[in-house]
Amino acid sequence: MTLEDLGYNTLLDKFRIDHHLIDFEIGRVISEHKERYVVKTAEGEFHAEITGNMRFTARNREDFPAVGDWVALTIYDHDLAIIHSILPRFSIIKRQAVGQFGEVQIIAANIDFAFLVQAADRDFNINRLERYLTLCYTSKVTPLIVLTKTDLFDNTKIDELKERVSQRIADIPVLPVSNETRKGYEALYTSIKKGKTYCLLGSSGVGKSTLLNNLSGKSLMKTGTISESTNKGKHVTTHRELILLEHGGVLIDNPGMKEVGIADTAGGLETTFDMILSLSENCRFKDCTHTIELGCSVLDAIEKGELDKDSYQNYLKLEKEKKHFEMTTAEKRKKDKLFGKMMKNYKKDFYKKK
């Protein structure tokens, strides 16, 4: 195995040389366990920690390594390696941290493609797909939709679900697969390229772990049985892990996410709902909220049946979340700034008295 198999490229190598990291080993974080990391290099896998300086200077969670990160490290033995630096990320998937206003949680870094996994049974939810799409577009990650459990239904039903997706989500491939019969897997194999990194995004019980096991050809993740009460698979993945696939490509499995809070400050929402953005250019008022205004092109399109009402309602919900996140982030920064100023004055007065 080479670093290139894991996704290493010339841009990362140039950064390594330009920033005088040539004397360090380079590896990729493949799993994280409470700020202890497993890093894969060309020489093998090593357990690692960050330096005290990295911990001290970290401003927030984004300054710590995440699964998918490329890092410069010193290796002492398989149970002791020290991470000195994180190489630049070209993408980072993150969401609002559950129960922590203004904070983000990193799902994975340096992802090229995301498989948005939904089951064809009762889990099927286009609103949730639009939420995941927003996450991808914010993160500069290319999405692909994977529809699992297709063996439970006939072709007519599957075609109907695909049509429902295409009516609201344009130009995104929908790949129907069965984890039981492997039908549809050829399209998945064709989508996976050597040296590219993929992640699985989806709620609990949609078959992500089974999908990963099948793609890797190994039993890497435990899989749950079907719950008789919900007819859904039970969630079993509890952490993020990066896996090198036998036929090329790197895949990251993620725990099922009950909540995917929007942490969008990069236009992901506008890309997901590009039709609403396009219509809004013809609104009478520049600051139109698309809710009650006269001369609103968005409301007019809904009235004429040109815009899906459910998609519009989902847009309003996600837009509200986005504004709330931006507001709480701004408030947190203001509080942190005031606290820093207070501590600075306190130290100044302390040394004066001394």
What profile does the largest beta sheet have? Answer: 6 strands, mixed
What is the fourth-level CATH superfamily of the largest domain?
P-loop containing nucleotide triphosphate hydrolases
Strand tally, please? 13
- Count of DSSP helices? 10
User: Helicity level, as a percent range?
Assistant: 25-40%
CATH topology of the largest domain: Rossmann fold
User: pLDDT average, as an integer?
Assistant: 83
How much of the sequence lies in strands comes to 15-25%
Cα-to-Cα separation, first versus last residue: 60 Å
| SS-derived structural category | alpha/beta
Side-by-side strand order of the widest sheet: 10-9-8-11-13-12
- The CATH architecture category of the largest domain equals 3-Layer(aba) Sandwich
Report on this model:
This protein is 35% helix and 22% strand. The chain has 354 residues and is of the alpha/beta class. The protein folds into 3 domains: 4-86, OB fold (Dihydrolipoamide Acetyltransferase, E2P), CATH 2.40.50.140; 92-253, P-loop containing nucleotide triphosphate hydrolases (Rossmann fold, 3-Layer(aba) Sandwich), CATH 3.40.50.300; 268-335, Probable gtpase engc, domain 3 (Ribonucleotide Reductase Protein R1, domain 1, Orthogonal Bundle), CATH 1.10.40.50. It has a 6-stranded mixed sheet with strand order 10-9-8-11-13-12, sandwiched between helices. The longest helix has 45 residues, at 309-353. The radius of gyration is 23 Å and the shape is flat.
